[in-house]
């Protein structure tokens, strides 16, 4: 559901409902009703405003249902983590270095 996805991303960013609604310029009550599933078909304009604050493209909200996604072998949490790393500016090289460091560290233990 789109509302659940918005809520998860909002919490991951550490934003309250009020903060997200203010930053996106949308009504807090409407955002709340979307997150709780009372409203289920938000407009593209609404999703664009929310997505801009959360650094998520509209497609991410619309295509978040697992049945609509290609099988990647990754669960949603891993996908979200990778997207969050990308959105925060972590490069592939930095991520690879981090993995190599962890492998090296684990081998020493």
TrEMBL record:
Q: Does the keyword DNA-binding apply?
A: yes
* Superkingdom of source: Bacteria
Residues in HTH cro/C1-type domain copies: 6-61
SMART domains cross-referenced by the UniProt entry = HTH_XRE
Is-annotated flag, keyword Signal? no
- Report keywords, A-Z: DNA-binding
- Residues in a coiled coil are none
Tell me a Gene Ontology molecular-function term this record carries.
protein dimerization activity
Q: Could you tell me which Pfam families the record lists for this protein?
A: HTH_3 (PF01381), SinI (PF08671)
Q: Where is the Sin domain?
A: 65-103
| A single GO cellular-component term on record | cytosol
Q: Which Gene3D superfamilies match?
A: lambda repressor-like DNA-binding domains
Q: What protein name is recorded for this chain? A: Helix-turn-helix domain-containing protein
Q: Which species expresses this protein natively?
A: Paenibacillus nanensis
